[in-house]
Design brief:
The complex is a heterodimer of chains A (494) and B (1003). Chain A has 494 residues and is mainly α. Helix content of chain A is 46%, strand content 5%. In chain A, helix 4 (71-79) packs across helix 6. The longest helix of chain A is centred in the first third of the chain and has 26 residues, at 139-164. The chains are: A mainly alpha (494), B mainly beta (1003). At the A-B interface, helix 1, helix 2, helix 5, helix 6 and helix 18 of A face helix 4, strand 22, strand 23, strand 25 and strand 26 of B.
Chain lengths: 494, 1003
């Protein structure tokens, strides 16, 4: 009896075992078809208006990156100029010296970072431009979004063409591998595309936004940027008409030059376009701008790293009594208008005050000054472009009016300083306007390429090692040339 | 309770009695079992009547008595000895001599999904016994393998609780997981840090592709099979193993003192035409930061196990406790392990059982940046100022590189990791139709890991402070399961021996990570560290997860004829979710192996040189599915960095920022192995040699793509390259016993491996130019066709520029006297990136070990030596400078200080000019040889021990890494790292020696 029972039990056990294993092993194909976890598949994106909104947001957000605002941008667009020194201690991040003294070779890392950083902006713009036309959404909004994307794409190509000359021109997302590797496009054609994008953008972008959209590209931003692009090509008539159009939009100069650069006065009446940076509580990844940090006062928790510092030449460039000197340079030993004392033990003569965020606003575990917007284009710049274009087209009167508006604001109500410029001699006036650009736009990453486009690279930067027919542009990153299998060519002299 | 048991045994006895009544008349047989070699008696030998369940065991003196049928056959079995069958034939006294199986044909090794006689194996499988592992008193089972097996290199990371890196026969993949597959009692793991080394009975390392290929899907980096301790036949045995020890840094690097440092900084400033930083350089010794922050650390380990078995069941239960302090103050690691395994012979044909391991560990983590901080911290900064405040580097304007006071780093560090894991499997094994065994096993691995980091609100120095506290809690959960079914046919007839295996596996790995951050969390007690006590705003929650599945079928045939001719063949088919929807879903991994046991041939019968001579050869394919989840599916990037601000209000941003490959194919390794196994002089000398050639085909990884594509990482995944590892291994062991009673064995092994990238899709471009370099994105490694994976890449230093004139003529932009002089390799008159070349190989060519065991009377001595040779290390510590980091004393003593002072070391401006480019100066030999393990044990005399009711009491003293010899100028030449940046030393955990005292106790 016992044995019989055992055998039955045994049989059941065996049957059970096989059954279990068969059930377990009868895996359907779906077992292997695993959805991406916590990630939306790209094929499900670009379907709704909300997707379009997110895609445009990404474009603006990306302008805050390290490549766009920090070391790579500073060495490419600022340190080479006569207004800035490397900064920090002599032994710290010495690669800055390669840009400061023009010893840079094509494999220097920041060349590639800046290049790639701009193309990342461009990819985000192209994503929007390629994908949102097919989305069913508010058509006015769609047109505006396209205009915003074109503005940023133009801005990025402008930075590229200034830095490298001819560059690969990507206006679409590559569909397959055959479209990955493309040659450099002639600088003139790149400029033409930039102008086309800016014309398109200016046609659809609004003059201003409500407070919920403050900081987006406006019509004024597109026109102003277009004027600057035209100025770099010496299209003076265009510069004149574009700047006149901007002036007609109602911008004005912010009364207090120094305060205009503080966080509470971001996006003020003078602002055409700023890279919007902020501190999002608890989110250091979103509060990722290092623009202020890398230039901040070293040796202070709330300060920064102290790079790209104002030079003796810049100090000397200001006219006696020009309040802009103190507003531009945080001198060693001074107390800032916000009450921060700059220690005498800092290693440099002073620091960039335009990127400065008062120490009291520092939040630990965030980048210092992560909330500081980068001023891309100010109305003062537009006025000076207007002055220069007017002078170049023989309208000295208009030139003087615009130039002196800038000087008048700089005086800040003081008398006996910064007298109005009166000369109508074209050469003298040109020199005065250039000089005004140097001090008005000091430490705003304008000077370096401004001098080159004036054709004075050798004259101004020659003593630092700048060579004509070479240093007008930086070398194309070696890594990019290698990856292109030699399709990309190097600039002359490198 | 006791009564019940008695009843049960009576019943059982009656049962047997009736069953056995059918057999012949019983007689009582008595006898003694002795060891064939040393003639000592053997206790606990199992004796059974063949074909019945009747049996007994020998007592402590090797004696037995058993009632058996007069015509029965007795089977004597004992672990480590050959089984013997003796017909009773009416004898009443049977004395048996058992031959040790350790060197004989009967030695069994664990292979994939089963065991094989060593003699039948046609691939390369190395096997280690639990004793070899536990004799090292190491905290991690994997570190114990160092130097033990030819072709297996272990790189230890000293941090308590961290997993060592194991490489089998060279680096065969460069992307995704490069770790080996660990199979513990049938369950798959990436890491076995959770295991207590004392719970391990056996480790088998499958080295060649043919033996690995039965694990196809994950076998590309090698397979390590771990079998845990199970109960042994006999009364319950209680074991206690424990040790306490100390750990202290050896071979520390001497840094400069305050005076020397000040002098160097002033020299560097002078070269940059800057005024001296230190007006007075006579600053004495200053602070020795290593001395300040490091300590002699304690380690304590206890393990208790109880095991035993009856005929119907076996059990093993163990508890372990490890408490290891780190050599950095306040760094500690505690691990608790519990393990239970049971096997039940439910019916004669059905066995079921389970293993379960619970493991819990808690680590007080050292600050992540402490090693860097110690290396760079300036000796001129006091730990504390006279007023008790922290010494502040900013007071001395030291700049960004040296702005850290390591004491502050340590004091305000509060980081803790706890890991809990429950894992194991249940199985059932059914034997039927005489030759068939069906086994089903379900395994699970449930892990939870929590990391908590708290930064308090503090103000220590200008560079190190925090005006708001921050708490980050991250939790990772893993839930993996594996289900396996195998059917084995096993038969022997005449001279034929045949085993056929067919099997199926389904596997699913799931993980989920959630991280919460809160600010302004108070801290009065540890109980305050909850996110909810922080500010309501600014809280952040982020999560991510992954699911991986795989489905596999496999089969294998092992055939042996007359113990002479061996043939093995297997095939595994794997489908993995990573390859779903793009490329080939199924990967097929075949293998074949053949062997010829020459010594068993007739013509060898009359020779007495070889006691064993076997030639074997094998070929196999394995796969690597350790690639990202859903690699061919483009996904939306909605990261925080894409959040836009309008009027300071955050708005979510998202876009497509990557390019994915349209299709991805299985990465395969194809390997050939030819081996020769020899034994001489009655197995006193054994030699095993292997030659192998393993090629990784269509290896998967990211290659750099044009930056102008604007993707977020500028990389594209794909099947991009072929690699090859080729090498030779030799292992020789001599074991003998002298007339004087000394038993000893001396074993040496050496592995030689050369690694090469054969061809890549990117042509002459590097497929990987990555890894942390010095600073400023100068990358020190290249993985490029024709060179080993992760080769160091940089300039060749030909000397030091002595004068300004020489600098001007050097062809180097910005060169100064005192800088490195780089070779203009392409001869174009200028030194630039085109003059960089391969300057070092981080893959060791030779790794070797010498392992010895001596036993004399009650003493035993183990002495293990281990080393690597022909390998380079990139000493990135030296040149990775932002500014005024500390220097080594060696640098101070040898630096260039003016024309003619040095032609090898540059000036103090080490971070300046071209000096911080990767170059041959920073490449040093990583060769080392060390006394890896010495252990002296003493078994207390049995007469004494038995008085204390013990079976065995052994005390031992042990030292690990006590002596190390190397020329490398960093803390440890044992650097490791992922394949594309192996051997790049950026502040590795300093090398330390451990000294333990311990005891092994058996009741």
């Amino acid at each position: 009896m016992k044995t019989y029972k055992n055998i039955t039990l045994q049989r059941w056990c065996i049957i059970g075992l096989f059954a279990t294993s068969i059930i377990a092993s009868s895996c359907k194909k779906s077992f292997l078809d695993v959805d991406p976890q916590g990630q939306q598949a790209a094929v499900d994106f670009w379907k709704t208006q909300e997707d379009a909104t997110k895609g445009v947001n990404a474009i603006y957000a990306n302008l805050r990156t390290w490549e766009n605002l920090a070391f790579p941008a500073l060495v490419i667009e600022s340190t080479g100029s006569d207004e800035a020194d490397k900064g920090s201690t002599p032994t710290d991040a010495t690669f800055f010296n390669l840009y400061d003294t023009f010893g840079v070779t094509s494999s220097e890392g920041s060349l590639n970072s800046f290049w790639t950083g701009q193309y990342r902006n461009i990819n985000l713009c192209n994503q929007v431009l390629d994908n949102i036309p097919a989305i069913t959404m508010d058509e006015t909004l769609k047109a505006r979004y396209i205009g915003e994307a074109k503005f940023v794409r133009a801005y990025s190509y402008f930075r590229l063409v200034r830095a490298y000359g001819d560059v690969p021109l990507r206006l679409k997302i590559p569909v397959d591998a055959s479209e990955y590797n493309i040659p450099r496009t002639d600088k003139a054609a790149v400029y033409a595309q930039i102008e086309k994008d800016l014309t398109d953008a200016a046609a659809v972008l609004p003059q201003s936004y409500g407070s919920a959209d403050l900081g987006r590209a406006t019509k004024g931003a597109a026109l102003g940027m277009h004027a600057k692009v035209a100025m770099y090509q010496k299209k003076w008539a265009d510069v004149l008409s574009l700047t006149n159009e901007v002036i007609g939009l109602g911008y004005s100069l912010f009364p207090d030059y120094e305060k205009g650069f503080r966080t509470q006065n971001e996006n003020n009446v003078e602002s055409l376009f700023e890279v919007q940076c902020s501190i999002l509580d608890g989110n250091a990844d979103a509060s990722n701008s290092q623009y202020s940090q890398v230039q901040g006062v070293p040796g202070e928790a709330a300060g920064g790293w102290g790079f790209n510092t104002p030079s003796e030449a810049l100090v000397a460039a200001f006219e006696t009594g020009d309040p802009r000197k103190d507003a531009t340079i945080l001198f060693k030993g001074e107390t800032s208008p916000q009450g921060d004392f700059i220690k005498l033990s800092v290693p440099n003569l002073g620091y960039n005050q335009k990127s400065y965020v008062p120490f009291s606003l520092y939040v630990s575990s965030f980048n210092q000054g992560a909330q500081q917007n980068f001023r891309v284009l100010r109305f003062a710049d537009v006025l000076l472009m207007n002055a220069e274009a007017a002078n170049e087209t023989g309208n000295a009167a208009l030139a003087l009016t615009s130039l002196n508006k800038v000087r008048a604001r700089a005086r800040g109500g003081l008398t006996g300083i910064l007298p109005d410029v009166t000369t109508t001699d074209q050469t003298a006036l040109r020199t005065a306007i250039w000089k005004e650009r140097q001090v008005e736009l000091a430490m705003e990453s304008d000077r370096y390429f401004d001098v080159i486009r004036q054709g004075r690279g050798l004259e101004v930067f020659g003593p630092k090692g700048w060579k004509a027919n070479k240093n007008e542009v930086w070398p194309v990153p070696q890594q990019e040339i290698d990856l292109s299998g030699g399709l990309l060519t190097q600039n002359p002299g490198y | 309770m006791k009564r019940k048991f008695t009843k049960l045994s009576v019943l059982t006895f009656l049962c047997f009695f009736f069953i056995n009544a059918a057999f012949a008349q019983d007689i009582i047989v008595k006898g003694t079992v002795t060891d064939g070699q040393d003639k000592t008696t053997i206790p606990s030998v199992s004796i059974k009547v063949k074909g019945t369940t009747r049996g007994t065991q020998t007592d402590a003196n090797g004696k037995f008595a058993l009632s058996v049928p007069a015509n029965g056959i007795l089977v004597f079995t004992y672990i480590g000895y050959n089984a013997q069958e003796i017909p009773v034939n009416n004898q009443t006294t049977i004395n048996v001599t058992l031959a040790s199986s350790s060197q004989t044909l009967e030695q069994v090794v664990v292979v994939g999904y089963g065991t094989q006689r060593k003699i039948d194996v046609t691939g390369s499988v190395a096997s280690l016994k639990g004793d070899d592992i536990s004799k090292q008193a190491s905290q991690n089972p994997v570190s114990a393998l160092q130097g033990k097996v030819a072709g297996v290199s272990i790189t230890n990371n000293g941090t308590p609780g961290s997993a060592p890196q194991i490489t089998i026969r060279g680096t065969g993949t460069i992307y995704g997981g490069t770790g080996v597959l660990y199979v513990v009692d049938g369950v798959w793991y990436d890491d076995i840090t959770f295991l207590n080394p004392a719970d391990i009975a056996n480790i088998s390392i499958l080295k060649d592709a043919s033996s690995q290929s039965i694990y196809g899907v994950r076998a590309a980096n090698g397979v390590v099979l771990v079998t845990t301790v199970r109960g042994k036949q006999g009364d319950a045995t209680i074991n206690y193993n424990g040790y306490v020890g100390i750990q202290r840094v050896t071979n520390a690097v001497k840094m400069t003192n305050a005076s020397e440092y000040a002098q160097l900084v002033n020299e560097a400033y002078a070269i940059s035409n800057a005024a001296p930083l230190f007006a007075n350089t006579d600053l004495g010794e200053g602070t020795d930061w290593y001395k300040q922050i490091m300590r002699t650390a304690m380690v304590t380990n206890h393990q208790v196990s109880i095991n035993g078995a009856t005929e119907k069941s076996s059990y093993n239960f163990s508890l372990g406790y490890l408490n290891q302090d780190g050599i950095i103050e306040r760094n500690s690691y505690k691990r608790y392990t519990a393990r239970l395994s049971n096997d039940y012979q439910v019916f004669k044909s059905l066995k079921i059982g389970y293993n379960v391991t619970g493991s819990s560990s808690k680590s007080n983590n050292p600050p992540a940046t402490i090693y860097r901080a110690l290396y760079t911290a300036a000796p001129v900064v006091p730990v504390f100022n006279a007023d008790g405040s922290y010494g502040d580097p900013s007071d001395l304007t030291l700049g960004n590189g040296a702005n850290v006071n390591p004491q502050v780093t340590l004091d305000f560090n509060n980081s803790q990791t706890t890991k809990n894991k429950v894992t194991g499997n249940i199985y059932a094994e059914l034997k039927f139709a005489k030759h068939f065994t069906f086994k089903t096993s379900a395994g699970g691995d449930f892990g939870q890991e929590e990391r908590r980091d708290y930064i308090p609100e503090y103000e220590a120095t200008s560079g190190q402070n925090s005006n708001i506290s921050k708490l980050v809690i991250g939790r990772t959960e893993t839930r993996n399961w594996i289900l396996e079914n195998t059917l084995t046919y096993d038969n022997k007839w005449n001279d034929h021996s045949l085993t056929i295996l067919a099997g199926q596996t389904a596997r699913r790995d799931k993980s989920y990570i959630i991280t919460g951050t809160a600010f302004n969390v108070p801290y009065n007690t540890e109980g305050d560290l909850y996110l909810k006590l922080g500010n309501a705003d600014g809280r952040l929650i982020e999560d991510s997860g992954s699911i991986n599945t795989a489905n596999s079928y496999f089969g294998r045939v092992n055939y042996a004829f007359s113990n002479k001719y061996l043939l093995n063949a297997s095939l595994r088919a794997d489908a993995a979710s990573q390859f779903f929807g793009g490329g080939d879903l199924w990967g097929y991994f075949p293998s074949i192996g053949a062997g010829w046991v020459i010594s068993n041939e007739e013509f060898m019968k009359n020779q007495n040189i070889f006691s064993n001579l076997k030639l074997r050869g094998s070929w196999g394919k394995v796969g690597n599915a350790n690639v990202p989840i859903n690699p061919t599916t483009a996904v939306v990037n909605q990261s925080a960095a894409l959040i836009a601000f309008y009027n300071n209000i955050a708005q979510t941003g998202a876009s497509i920022t990557t390019i994915v490959p349209p299709a991805l194919f299985w990465e395969r390794s194809v390997g050939t192995d030819i081996g020769l196994e020899m034994a001489f002089l009655a197995n006193k000398l054994t030699i095993e040699t292997d030659y192998y050639n393993r090629k990784t085909e269509q290896a998967i990884f990211n290659i750099p793509i044009l930056g102008s594509l604007g993707t977020s990482d500028s990389r594209l995944l794909g099947n991009q390259a072929d690699f090859r590892n080729r090498g030779f291994e030799l292992m020789a062991t001599w074991s003998d016993k002298t007339a004087g009673g000394l038993t000893y064995s001396i074993s040496g092994n050496i592995g030689m491996n050369t690694n090469k990238v054969l061809n890549v899709t990117s042509g002459s471009n590097a497929i990987d130019a990555g890894g942390d370099g010095l600073n400023n994105a100068v990358v020190p490694t290249r993985t490029v066709a024709g060179s080993p994976i992760g080769s160091f890449y940089g300039y060749v230093v030909t000397g030091i520029i002595q004068t300004a004139e020489e600098a001007a003529a050097s062809g180097m932009a910005g060169a100064r006297a005192g800088d490195f002089k780089y070779a203009d390799l392409n001869g174009d008159g200028t030194v630039d990136a085109k003059d960089k070349t391969i300057i070092g190989n981080p893959n060791p060519k030779y790794s070797y070990g010498i392992n010895t065991n001596f036993a004399y009377k009650n003493f035993d001595l183990t002495l293990d030596i281990q080393g690597v040779a022909d390998v380079d290390v990139f000493n990135a510590n030296l040149g990775n400078r932002l500014g005024n980091e500390n220097y080594t004393k060696d640098f101070f003593d040898n630096r260039w200080t003016g024309a003619g002072t040095s032609n090898t070391y540059p000036s103090a401006s080490l971070a300046g000019g071209n000096n911080n480019q990767t170059n041959t100066f920073y490449v040093e030999s990583g060769a080392y040889i060390r006394l890896r393990n010495v252990q002296l044990g003493y078994n207390l005399p049995e007469s004494l021990v038995s008085k204390w009711k013990m079976k065995k009491l052994r005390v031992f003293a042990n030292a690990q890494n006590a002596l190390n010899f190397f020329g490398y100028k960093g803390f440890s030449p044992e650097v490791g790292g992922v394949p594309t940046r192996t051997g790049v030393d950026i502040n590795v955990y300093p090398l330390f020696a451990t000294y333990n005292l311990g005891v092994n106790l058996t009741f």
